[in-house]
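Much of the work behind modern protein science is quiet bookkeeping, done one molecule at a time. The protein below has been through that process, and both of its lines are reproduced in full.


***
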Amino acid sequence: TTKSVGNGLRLYEVHIAKMIEVTHSFCGKEGDTKDTNYIVHWNYVADKTFMGRFSFSCKFAANTLKTYGTGKPEQITVNHRGNPTKETISTLNLSGSKAKQFVSLVKTLKPQCDGGTPKICPGSPYR
């Protein structure tokens, strides 16, 4: 994930941003859920490699969007139990110096192992 996609961001940071944006959408458009401690878990796989499990609370997602502000809304397709639906989500504003700040934030997020059987950890091959 060393490929740069512009503005000092690697594809890795762009993928983490998307996870946070979708978490925020899942929790509620304004991050206003009944339980801000609700957590969305992401298993991140890139190029047949397990990159790690990331867990974001609704509160973290809402605070992140509040910190960076929002960019242009984006329409995505979400598959829920095999049913694709189109949703419009808020995106993080990662323009200018905010991109560098976001890279610093991502460095603090430590990918975890997936505790399933067999246990799979970051860097492991994924089929």
Observations:
- The chain has three helices and six strands.
- Residues 4-108 form one domain.
- The mean pLDDT is 89.
- Residues 11-27 form the longest helix (17 residues).
